[in-house]
Structures are given as structure tokens and as C-alpha cells.
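Researcher: We're teaching a course module on how sequence relates to structure. For the next exercise, students receive a sequence and then see the predicted structure as C-alpha cells, so they can try to spot secondary structure elements on their own. Here is the exercise chain.
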Amino acid sequence: MNKIKEQKTKISILGAGSWGGTLAWLLSNQGYKISLWTFSKEEWNLLNRTKTLLRPKKVRLNKNIQITTNLKDAISKTDIVIIAVPTNAFKSLIIRLKHLNLSKKIILLSATKGITTNDYLRPSQILKKYLPKNKIAVLSGPNIALDVISKAPIISVIASRDLKVAALLQKIISSKYFRIYINKDINGIEIGGALKNVIAIAAGMSDGFGFNMSTKAALISRGLIEISKIAIKEGANAKTLLGAAGIGDLIATCCSKDSRNYRVGYELAKGKNLSDILKKLGQVAEGTETVKSMIKMAKKYKINTPIANAVYKIAIENKRPKIVLEELLSRPQAKYEIEF
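Model: And here is the predicted structure for the students to work with:
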């Protein structure tokens, strides 16, 4: 691995949405030079004109951030590329990087949580497939973008099979309020970070139906079991699901009203149409796509996922929420709480 001088590290962030913009704000405030890329010329114009982050809230961007729509310029002379685009834009972006002959010395950090709906690949699998010579890592955890900007004490996890890479990124990204832990289990980190969005939609529905915290606690615990069964089949370490990128991320996304997936679920319970909800939201809610992948994976491994099935019926098949809820509550009683 190339030895990067921490003080002179240049970081490129691809994606200027809520999470990409938040990471740019966080790292630029720590003194790093940031190249922030957006595919949208409209977004580029607004960011350059106002020098203000648009999402998740309006905060001033400092002089350490250079905003561009030119991908080649964005990755020029960089040391670290952080990818923070929606899951279904991830693959096409990585193919573009490959065609730009991205230097193999550049470290790639995925900050995208999801599984593609066409070929069911996770971000790390896409990186390994198209840029196999680069060192790769994954960032995940209970990180609502608005909470990170608030400077509340927050933790996250960086996973890499190369612990030297993980340790370097930990040192660079960690701050007084944003503490990073490291892990080798990329499978567990990614599966936990992706599938929790599906359970968060269900949690939003629970609140939308007017249920209490005991109901949500039951939903979270049963949702974690559904996630864990799939994650283990995908090669994850079960211990990872007990950490920040597992149960921690699940709790945050299921309980925060600032979570996009939670908000989608809440509105679905009120009888609103998914397309209308997403249009009003104005942002990607990854769980609405990831649920398709989760159902596909569950069928592949012959795993029973009643919560994910219910989300799929309501969000994708447009079935009436109260009818699906009745079906969920009327299914046969399982003999044991946890069966693997």
C-alpha cells in the first residue's frame, strides 16, 4: 500500500447528496482538501453559488471543498476516493472510473448502503470486479447525516480485509465527535447496512399504524434475525451484526424520523402511494429497492422473512397495508424464537 502523508491527503467524494455532502463537510472541517463530484449541473450551480450544503440541512461549505461535475478532474491527483452515490448508480460510476484508468494506488472507500437490483451485487463486490488492483474498504454504521452535522457523539465502522488500510482511514476520518472502529468483515458490514433499510420501512409503518414502542422493539428484534440469517449465508460473521454496523445501524434507522426509509414506511401506512412518497421526499430511500434484493436472497437460501415479505407486498406490489398487516399477524406461530 502506498504511504500517504496524512497532513497532505487529498480526498475525492463522488456524490453530493445528503451523505456525500455531509462527509465533505466533516472532512473539510478537519483540514483536508476535498474534491466533491456531482453528476447534476443544477446541483453544481447551486452549491457553487451558495457555498452551502443543500441536504440534509443548510450549512456553509468552506474553502477546502472544490465542487465539480468533471469526474476526471475530481479524481485527479487524489489519494482516497469515497463513493457515496445511490446503490443503483454505483456500478455505472465504477465502470466510468475503470475507463478513466484510475490509479491502482488510490484507496476506494464505499459509503453506499445497498444491493443492486439487477445483478444483486454489493458495492465491495462491484469494486472488486471492476477495480481489482485497488485497496477497498466500506464505511457503515448508525449515521443519520443530520445527526453527524449536529456534532453529537457518533460512531461508525470501516471494514477492509487489509487492516492497515482500515487503520489509515480510521485515522483520517475520525474526529472528536465522529469515532471510527475497524473490522475485517466486509460481508457483515454491507449486508447489515443494506438490509436494515427494509426493516426501517416496516418500523415507519409501525408508527404510522399508531403502534407503541413495544411493537417497534419486537419488529426490530425480529428484523435483526431476518438480516442475520441472510448475512451469515453470505459469509458474514454473526458478531458483526451485534455491533454498530448491525444492531446499531438498525436501531438508528428504525427510530429516527430523519431516516428516509422510516419516513417512507410511515407514509405507506397512511395509505399513500410509493411513487408519490418518493417524489415528495426528493431523495433516494434505498430500502424501496433493497427489498427486492432481500426477497431474492431469502428465496435463494430458503429463509423465511415475514417482515421483508410484508414490506415487499405493500411497497412493490401495492397491496393494502392493513390487509398485509392482518396476514402478518395471522401466520402460524413459530416454535422457537431463533432458528438458524
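Model: If you want an answer key for the exercise: The CA atoms of residues 104 and 134 lie 5 Å apart. The chain has two domains: 6-184, 193-330.
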